[in-house]
Automatic annotation (TrEMBL):
Segments forming a coiled coil: none
TM spans (from-to): 12-31, 51-74, 94-117, 129-146, 152-178, 205-229, 235-254
Protein name: Uncharacterized protein
Keyword set includes Nucleotidyltransferase: no
Entry keywords, A to Z: Membrane, Transmembrane, Transmembrane helix
Organism: Coemansia interrupta
Lineage: Eukaryota, Fungi, Fungi incertae sedis, Zoopagomycota, Kickxellomycotina
Region annotation (Disordered) ranges: 268-292
Domain of life: Eukaryota
Length: 292
């Protein structure tokens, strides 16, 4: 399979390779930062979709940039005996791209739930499965029988990225426009029957949603332009490559802005001014673990 038509000009290849290395570094740091919270005793931050879903984005970026590096340095020059392995790498990247956008869509749904657009109880009952569900669906959609369909390029290049972008923009608009309390109390089951109550700063959710929407446009709009245009000028190919190669910045920035990092553990007895039941989740159902 020839990939030469997808390769940018030689000077741009060096820039893309450097951006890929940057993404690898940032992705590893994003995952490492989550692991610190995951193994910290009674740390509720690891239960937040605004933090643990970013690890799925980082993992997708690692797969993607490895594929990009293979295309940049080998292309059609790869030996025929190794061509099937390159095809396997490309298929993995295909699944990673689909998973990436599905995770972003689930992240947008979580933000919408926190602001009451989507039922918080319904969202909490399924948020444990966001990552595995996105990965499973992505693998199914990257299966050879599916990719051979005539509508698949439109689905992969246009429908899925546009849908995730629209959801993220909707989440940012709703978070910015809708009135909400400055803080909200949520009960998080850590180890059954251990439950911890945290205070979540809603303005941090607004900032998180706005950053997620803006970065989504920045890194994926060139991709959509490339998919819609009949001709592909060299500058657009370079721009699309740059967005994909540097995308490790996306989860890295969102990790630093995650509302999970500013959640405060509170004591019910010491917090007489707790919000009303509409603002506080007191349900101890384990499925509410990720309602940050």
């Amino acid at each position: 399979m020839s990939w030469d038509s997808l390769r940018p000009a030689p000077p741009m290849q060096a820039i893309c390779a450097a951006l890929c290395l940057l993404t690898l570094l940032l992705s590893v740091r994003t995952i490492a930062r989550f692991r610190r919270h995951l193994f910290e005793y009674r740390d509720p931050a690891s239960e937040s979709p605004t933090l643990y879903l970013l690890c799925w984005l980082a993992a997708g970026d690692i797969v993607t940039v490895v594929t990009v590096l293979c295309l940049l340095f080998f292309g059609s020059d790869i030996a025929p005996a190794l061509a099937p392995y390159l095809d396997m790498v490309v298929r993995a990247a295909l699944a990673a791209q689909i998973c990436y956008h599905l995770v972003l869509a689930f992240l947008a749904v979580h933000v919408l739930a926190m602001f009451g657009i989507v039922s918080r109880h319904a969202e909490a009952s399924v948020c444990d499965y966001y990552g595995p569900a996105a990965a499973s669906l992505a693998l199914a959609l990257s299966y050879k029988l599916v990719t051979s369909l005539s509508v698949y390029p439109t689905l992969f290049l246009v429908v899925i990225p546009t849908a995730s972008m629209c959801l993220m923009l909707a989440a940012a608009v709703c978070a910015s426009a809708l009135p909400s309390p400055s803080t909200r109390l949520v009960d998080i089951p850590l180890d059954d029957p251990d439950i911890i109550r945290v205070r979540v700063a809603m303005p941090h959710y607004v900032r998180f949603a706005q950053a997620a929407a803006g970065l989504h446009l920045l890194f994926h709009l060139p991709w959509l332009l490339w998919a819609h245009l009949q001709t592909h000028p060299s500058w657009l190919i370079a721009l699309a490559y740059s967005g994909i190669c540097a995308r490790g910045i996306y989860p890295a920035v969102l990790t630093s802005l995650s509302p999970a990092l500013t959640m405060q553990v509170v004591d019910d007895d010491a917090d007489p001014a707790a919000p009303s039941s509409n603002e506080t989740s007191s349900d101890t159902n384990p499925h509410h673990a990720h309602q940050d």
